[in-house]
Amino acid sequence: MKTTPAFPLTWIAALASVLALAGCGDKPADKAPAAAASAASDAAATTDPMEVVIQAAMADRFKIDKVARHAVASTLEVSGRIEANERQVTRIGAGVTGRVTSVLAEVGDRVRPGQVLAHVASPELTTAQLTYLRANASTQLAERAVERARQLIQADVIGSAELQRRESELAIARAELRAAGDQLALVGMPREAIAKLRDSGSLYPHTAVVATQSGIVIERKVSQGQVAQPGDPLFTVADLSNVWVVGSLPEQTARNAKAGQSVEITVPAIGKVLSGRVIHVADTVTPETRTVLIRTQVENVDLALKPQMLATMSIAGSTVDTLAVPAVAVVRDNDRDHVFVQRAANRFRLTPVELGPASDGMRPVLSGLNEGTPIVVEGAFHLNNERKRAELE
To answer: Which of 188, 122, 120, 174 is nearest to 146 (CA)?
Structure first.
């Protein structure tokens, strides 16, 4: 019976060597940890909504620079409003207690000094006119008495003492007449009406409320038939050829505002940027708001600025050396300022920061960034769009 011959021992040894060499080569298991780490990193980049990874072909679209110190002029941004210049505002009322018989001016009317705004009928006016007529009669009587005394002293009928007494009475009568006339003018009776009263004795039926300056009627608080008191402001007249811009500074920053500083005033309602200077910084703090009042004055020849319009005041301060980033590098998201910080090649993270107001295209860094941190200084807006697109995908 024949048997199959066994493999030679040399073949068996050679086969074992080949298997051993194959076992000593690179194992797929050795590459697994590196591949897993890379996958985890990519997964983290895609799950973090604030981080974005761009393709290498897009890198030239963005400019990277490090955060550095710059000379930046400190700027205070203040919300304000237009107000009438109080030095050119007059509140006009009646001089006597009485009933308003007519109203001759409305809000928005342009008035001139001496123009009649309303008429008021008053018993006080009648009493004052009667007092004036009595003073006028007493003056005329005293004048005739002095004239007779001069004739009698020439005839040597009376002495000089009697003439002096009558002249003294005449001086007093004339003073009382002037006082009565001034009282009539004070309550609003025109000078021509006073002259007519003196000549003919005709009583003036009402007193007039007259404008004391030229300007525009910005407020009327009177109606026909209303009873007016001397202390009631019936009309407010303002000269709006120049106006105030008033704002409130937080007490922490008020120390940086000084009278004489230049101010840029933006008024959205008219689409203009005006220039002015700080004319007043309050010496007290408003306790309810913990703010300090600040005021500027600007010309308003064309009357485009109207009281109660909203405005923004940018007050230029001293130049300081501070960390700053370009304004174009800032992305506004969720009502906060952000910049894109470079984390690695082609990898960026949207980082919240606290920044001051822009000055000459730079915004000072208050917190959130350190000197030397690489950020995107050009193309931040487009990079944020890439981040949002990646988040949606």
So the answer is: 174
Question: CA 306, CA 295: separation in Å to the nearest integer?
Answer: 16
Q: So what CATH class is 88-122+206-239?
A: mainly beta
Continuous H helices in the chain:
9-23, 28-47, 123-154, 160-186, 191-200, 380-392
| Whether the Cβ atoms of residue 189 and residue 132 lie closer than 8 Å to each other | no
Dihedral sign from CA coordinates of 54, 58, 59, 61: negative
State the pairing for strand pair 235-238/262-267. Answer: unpaired
Residues in the chain predicted with pLDDT less than 70, given as ranges, are 1-46, 317-318
Which CATH number applies to 123-203? 1.10.287
- Altogether, the residues listed in the chain come to a count of 393
Task: Write down the pLDDT at residue 18.
Answer: 41
pLDDT of residue 56: 84
The pLDDT score that the predictor gives to residue 276 is: 87
Fold classified for 51-76+257-276+303-393: 2.40.420
